[in-house]
Each structure stands twice: as structure tokens, then as C-alpha cells.
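Fill in residues.
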């Protein structure tokens, strides 16, 4: 009997390619550390809509419910853009987070030394970068009601999205941010828009209350527009950033580019019971899907996060992260991070090399 049951949901586009390599790396790490996995694959996104008429079919929901953790690829593509909102591929992500209460979205952005020249910022601005965005994942404007588009008069429509946060929702995600900071460099920045938004006024007040339970953490607050500017001006000042759903979505994608490519960034989506879905931050990249040009590192690093946060196997996570670092030290680069003097390889070659290094 396997030690762990892992749901694998490749999704669309390059999600199919990169998830296969994350799965292989997990398998190799399992052999090295004496852990066995049972992988079971499910559909989500546009692929699932085409096959079952639903971007998040009940079979996939049941698979996730019966798994210790899930690896997720990416969903979406232009061929599904005209579908109703509830049928679009992205509904699978929102449905997954909502159904399993995946309120804590962890998005690390760390600079590998060999990639300092791949960033669009100067090397001295990003060398040593190691920050973590803790994003609230099941509340805010993406889930608030009402959300409608209505005809005001024959010549005009009116659209409404609602940003809603409660005290308990804010408290639990801010507490995760403090817990993450307590095992890192003990600095936490809470990001809001307190000068104009009622939800942010509540956010800042609750964040201040939670801070009293963590007297050893250096706490600061910043408006989201200033935080975006500071990420570009001086990213090394940050350790842990905790914020709401929409602000976290934007800031974490901005932070990903500091490392040279969004193809490098992993994420974890966790609930209060410890169950998690682990996925690369990048999208489906339909322009390169099926061409062996995708970067599998984000998916592989997501597998490392799965080991660390869901399985509590820090040694396996460390081994996977070290293997990625060694592959980069060896000069291997996929097209998104390729520079002069390095070796251009495809998705398969990068994935195979990392798996080989994980094996020891």
C-alpha cells in the first residue's frame, strides 16, 4: 500500500507537460527517501469542459477529496474564452479553492544565484532575493456577491463585483503570515488600501490585533500601490507579505518576474486541515504548448512545496530544491531563462536532469 495518494490534475496547455515532470521528480524522491506514492490523474479546465461539459467535474472533486495532496498544472486557453463564466476553465481553480477551503495561498519568490542576470532588474537589486507572498485565496472580490452585469438602459451596461472580508477570514490568513515569518527572518508586511477601502480598514485593524500574539515579529503596513513600487525599487527589503486575494494575485505575479521568469515560481494552496493543492504560478502558455519549450521548474518546485507543507517531509523538499539549483549551476536553461553562455534545453531535458539529480 502506498504511503501517500497524490491527485494529479494536469489541466490545459503546458500544464500537461510540466506536471508530468513534477510527478516524475516526486517518484524519484520517494525512491531515495523510502516513500511510495499512488498517483491518480483527473481532468480540469478546458480539457475537462471538452470531455465532460464541466471544467471541474465531480470525478475530479472526488479524486481530490480522496488524496493526501494534489499536483495541479494550469488551465485556460483562447478557445474557451467565449464560454459563460461558470464554464470557463478558470472556474476549476476557483471551484477547487472554494470546495476545499484553500484559503492560504503561499507564493515564494527566491533568486537562484545562476539566474541573477536573467532578471530584468540589475543583479545587485535581486541577488539574495527570498520573499514569500501569503495571499488570501477564498474571499475578497473574486468570491464576493453580488457579481452581476445588468442593462441600465438601451445604451449602457453596468457591472458589479463585490469585495467582502470578515474578521475571521482576515485573522486566519494574517496568522498564517505571522507563522511563516516566525520561521524565516521575522519580518511581516501587511498590504492593504486602508485609505480608501472599508475592507482594508478592517484588514489593518485585525492585522494589528493578531500582531500582539507575535511580539518578536517586526510588523509594517503598506498601501498596495506603494508595495508594487517597492517590489521593483528595493525587493530585498521584503520577507513575508500578507494580503488579500486580488492584491496578492497582482503582487505575487510582479514578484515572480524579479526572479527572471514566471516559469520559475511555485505555489501552495492550503486549508485548515493541512490538505493542499500545489501548482506553478504560470499559465497554460498556449503559444508554446506541445513544443518542448516550457520550463518545468515551477511545477517541480511546487512538488517540493507539496513535500514540505502537505507531507511534512522537509528532507524530500530540500533534496528537490537542491537538485533544481544544481541543474541551473550546471548551465541548463529553458528558453525563458536562456542567456549567452548557457545551454539551451527543452522541458523534457530539464525535467530529466532534475530528476536524475534528485536521485543522487
Amino acid at each position: 500500500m502506498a504511503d501517500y495518494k497524490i491527485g494529479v490534475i494536469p489541466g490545459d496547455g503546458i500544464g500537461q507537460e510540466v506536471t508530468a515532470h513534477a510527478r516524475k521528480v516526486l517518484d524519484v524522491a520517494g525512491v531515495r527517501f523510502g516513500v511510495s506514492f499512488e498517483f491518480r490523474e483527473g481532468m480540469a479546465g478546458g480539457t475537462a469542459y471538452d470531455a465532460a461539459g464541466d471544467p471541474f467535474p465531480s470525478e475530479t472533486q472526488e479524486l481530490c477529496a480522496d488524496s493526501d495532496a494534489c499536483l495541479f498544472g494550469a488551465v485556460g486557453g483562447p478557445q474557451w474564452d467565449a464560454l459563460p463564466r461558470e464554464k470557463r476553465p478558470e472556474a476549476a481553480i476557483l471551484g477547487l479553492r472554494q470546495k476545499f477551503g484553500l484559503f492560504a495561498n503561499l507564493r515564494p519568490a527566491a533568486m537562484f544565484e545562476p539566474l541573477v542576470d536573467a532578471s530584468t532588474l540589475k543583479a545587485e537589486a535581486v541577488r539574495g532575493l527570498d520573499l514569500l507572498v501569503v495571499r488570501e485565496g477564498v474571499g475578497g472580490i473574486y468570491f464576493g456577491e453580488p457579481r452581476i452585469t445588468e442593462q441600465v438602459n438601451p445604451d449602457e451596461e453596468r457591472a458589479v463585483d463585490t469585495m467582502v472580508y470578515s474578521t475571521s477570514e482576515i485573522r486566519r490568513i494574517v496568522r498564517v503570515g505571522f507563522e511563516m515569518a516566525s520561521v524565516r527572518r521575522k519580518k511581516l508586511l501587511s498590504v492593504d488600501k486602508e485609505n480608501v477601502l472599508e475592507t482594508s480598514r478592517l484588514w489593518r485593524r485585525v492585522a494589528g490585533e493578531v500582531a500582539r500574539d507575535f511580539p518578536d515579529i517586526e510588523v509594517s503596513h503598506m498601501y498596495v500601490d506603494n508595495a508594487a513600487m517597492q517590489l521593483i525599487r528595493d525587493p530585498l527589503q521584503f520577507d513575508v507579505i500578507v494580503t488579500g486575494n486580488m492584491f496578492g494575485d497582482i503582487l505575487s505575479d510582479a514578484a515572480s518576474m524579479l526572479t527572471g521568469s514566471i516559469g520559475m515560481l511555485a505555489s501552495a494552496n492550503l486549508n485548515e486541515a493541512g490538505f493542499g493543492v500545489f501548482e506553478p504560478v504560470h499559465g497554460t502558455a498556449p503559444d508554446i504548448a506541445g513544443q518542448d519549450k516550457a520550463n518545468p521548474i515551477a511545477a517541480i518546485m511546487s512538488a517540493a512545496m507539496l513535500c514540505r507543507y502537505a507531507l511534512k517531509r522537509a528532507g524530500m523538499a530540500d533534496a528537490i530544491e537542491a537538485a533544481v539549483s544544481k541543474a541551473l549551476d550546471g548551465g541548463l536553461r529553458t528558453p525563458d531563462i536562456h542567456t549567452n553562455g548557457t545551454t539551451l534545453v527543452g522541458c523534457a531535458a530539464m525535467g530529466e536532469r532534475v530528476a536524475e539529480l534528485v536521485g543522487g
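The chain has twelve helices and 14 strands.
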